[in-house]
Design brief:
Layout: H1 2-16, H2 20-42, H3 44-53, E1 81-85, E2 90-99, E3 102-110, E4 113-120, E5 123-132, H4 141-151, E6 158-163, E7 167-168, E8 179-189, E9 192-204, E10 209-218, E11 232-247
């Protein structure tokens, strides 16, 4: 009996001792767990936002002429006349959100854009642009549904821009590069019409004219409260973006 107790006493410390390789594995697992916890707190919202929204589309900009577009940019043209919004034009909006604690940029786009632009005696005398807002889409269908409900696209499916006052655009006929313009107008979205100023860049192309621009817009001016749904908060101000391809 004494010998058996002695044997158990000798084996007892070794029976409960953690082998060195197990201690190392436990230590590594603990460190990895701590790092993942830190990532979940600090980087998790950003990662979630990137996974659910992706990278925002680049702003709509003028194209860069290619060698195949054979025209002489130094040769003056007569810009006077009526220009039609051609296929390939785009419009939409850009606005910021805070999604689960991470700042993201939301971009909605449509190619359903129509309208006319009139230039007379070097002056922009009329511009009427229509955008099918019901077709504007982001990368999230739930967000698009909310947007359509907010502006009531079932009753007001289109947005409109109308020129507010004549603007001198005579430089478009002679400048080889983009011409920067500040164009006043009236923007109608949903049930609201607001006075706005569009910052536009215009350039000649082989096919006609290109117009790229932005219009800053406050949601409150359109009678739209900035949504705050707990996990997402929308900025109170955004912008309308356009790229118009004009042909005669």
């Amino acid at each position: 009996m004494e010998g058996m107790r002695h044997g158990r006493e000798q084996r007892h410390p070794h029976h409960y001792q953690i082998p060195p390789e197990h201690r190392r594995r436990w230590l590594i697992t603990t460190i990895v767990g701590l790092l993942l916890a830190v990532l979940a707190v600090t980087g998790g919202p950003w990662l979630y936002a990137r996974m659910t929204t992706g990278e925002p589309a680049e702003p709509l900009e003028l194209s860069t002429p290619t060698p195949e577009q054979t025209f002489d940019p130094d040769a003056p043209i007569d810009p006077n006349g009526t220009w039609q919004v051609a296929e390939g034009s785009q419009a939409g909006y850009r606005i910021g959100e805070v999604l689960n604690g991470a700042e993201v940029e939301v971009v909605g786009r449509t190619d359903q854009v129509t309208g006319t632009v009139t230039i007379a005696d070097g002056m922009l005398s009329a511009a009427d642009i229509t955008v099918d807002t019901a077709s504007i889409a982001t990368d999230q269908s739930a967000r698009d549904l909310y947007f359509r409900r907010a502006i009531n696209t079932s009753e007001h499916p289109d947005a409109y821009f109308e020129l507010g006052a004549p603007v001198d655009v005579s430089a478009v006929g002679t400048e080889p590069g983009p011409v920067e313009l500040s164009v006043p107008g009236r923007l109608t979205i949903g049930e609201s019409t607001v006075d706005v100023t569009a910052a536009l860049s215009v350039q000649r192309t082989a096919d006609g004219l290109e117009v790229a621009g932005t219009i800053p817009v406050a949601l409150s001016d359109l009678g739209l409260p900035a949504p705050s749904l707990g996990f997402v908060t929308v900025d109170p101000e955004g912008s309308v973006e356009t790229l118009l391809l004009l042909s005669r």
